[in-house]
Amino acid sequence: MRWLLPYPLLALALALMWLLLSGVSPGQVVLAVGVATGASHALAALGEASPAIRRWLAIPTLAGVVFHDIVVSNLEVAGILLGIRRTRGAGFVTVPLTTRSPSALAILSIIVTSTPGTAWIDYDAARNEVLVHVFDLVDEAHWRQLIAERYERLLMEIFE
Amino acid sequence: MSVHLADVPLWAAILAAFFLVLGAGLALLGTIGLVRLPTFYQRIHAPTLGTSWGAAGMVLASMIIFTAASGRLVLHEILIGVFVTVTTPVTLMMLGRSALYRDRSERNPEVPQFGASDADDDTAQGAS
């Protein structure tokens, strides 16, 4: 199965994207499958390891948690910018991580970045630490715990 | 695809207007923050309003209007949201790391300095 479709998730995503952009018809389905298979084999030539998803059930939980946090932090940052809430000072937090899976780290960087109020600045691969800048920094331990307990634990369930 | 806005039912128009104003308002607020906040590291937080619910609001409004007007499900706008979300960290990390590198080189007390891996960094730079 692997030789036929080296990256099943990537192929599925590409085929879905093709159908969303061009509309669903029998001809387009054939084209979408062809393009997705060809693109997967092109990536396979580069030799990237395909991420293995271990626990699918954790994905909706993580999506729900992230959706909730993005809504809440949008309101918080908008409130600070409008002058309704006062910021208690911005600052850097060094967060030690446990996972070294490239897929988990990539998703974690997307979560931290797309949540307003936290920005992933630098990652130290030797010490497996990430430097995050927080817009409204009250308690450094709170942010370390938020990233490790709320996001990283679920990501490790999914990928490791 | 021809779309007649007069065909859009009132409830869909109100819902779309709500999301459009919400998205555009958040994007505007983020832009004002980008101009007005005092330091670089604070400024990079403001546009994330535009890349999260700013973009999501506008995408939802577009999906509602075109689905209601054309009578079939129009979803391809969701790709805009997906690609904005997935690509933002790349540009943000590039800007953040270059700013951090300059501030550390200038020994700016506002940013955390090179840690215990300082010596490794220096030898790596010397070798390259």
UniProtKB/TrEMBL annotation, chain A:
<keyword id="KW-0812">Transmembrane</keyword>
<dbReference type="Pfam" id="PF01899">
    <property type="entry name" value="MNHE"/>
</dbReference>
<keyword id="KW-0472">Membrane</keyword>
<protein>
    <submittedName>
        <fullName>Na+/H+ antiporter subunit E</fullName>
    </submittedName>
</protein>
<comment type="similarity">
    <text>Belongs to the CPA3 antiporters (TC 2.A.63) subunit E family.</text>
</comment>
<dbReference type="InterPro" id="IPR002758">
    <property type="entry name" value="Cation_antiport_E"/>
</dbReference>
<keyword id="KW-1003">Cell membrane</keyword>
<keyword id="KW-1133">Transmembrane helix</keyword>
Automatic annotation (TrEMBL), chain B:
<dbReference type="InterPro" id="IPR005133">
    <property type="entry name" value="PhaG_MnhG_YufB"/>
</dbReference>
<feature type="compositionally biased region" description="Acidic residues">
    <location>
        <begin position="118"/>
        <end position="128"/>
    </location>
</feature>
<feature type="region of interest" description="Disordered">
    <location>
        <begin position="104"/>
        <end position="128"/>
    </location>
</feature>
<keyword id="KW-1133">Transmembrane helix</keyword>
<keyword id="KW-0812">Transmembrane</keyword>
<dbReference type="Pfam" id="PF03334">
    <property type="entry name" value="PhaG_MnhG_YufB"/>
</dbReference>
<feature type="transmembrane region" description="Helical">
    <location>
        <begin position="12"/>
        <end position="37"/>
    </location>
</feature>
<feature type="transmembrane region" description="Helical">
    <location>
        <begin position="49"/>
        <end position="68"/>
    </location>
</feature>
<protein>
    <submittedName>
        <fullName>Cation:proton antiporter</fullName>
    </submittedName>
</protein>
<feature type="transmembrane region" description="Helical">
    <location>
        <begin position="74"/>
        <end position="95"/>
    </location>
</feature>
<keyword id="KW-0472">Membrane</keyword>
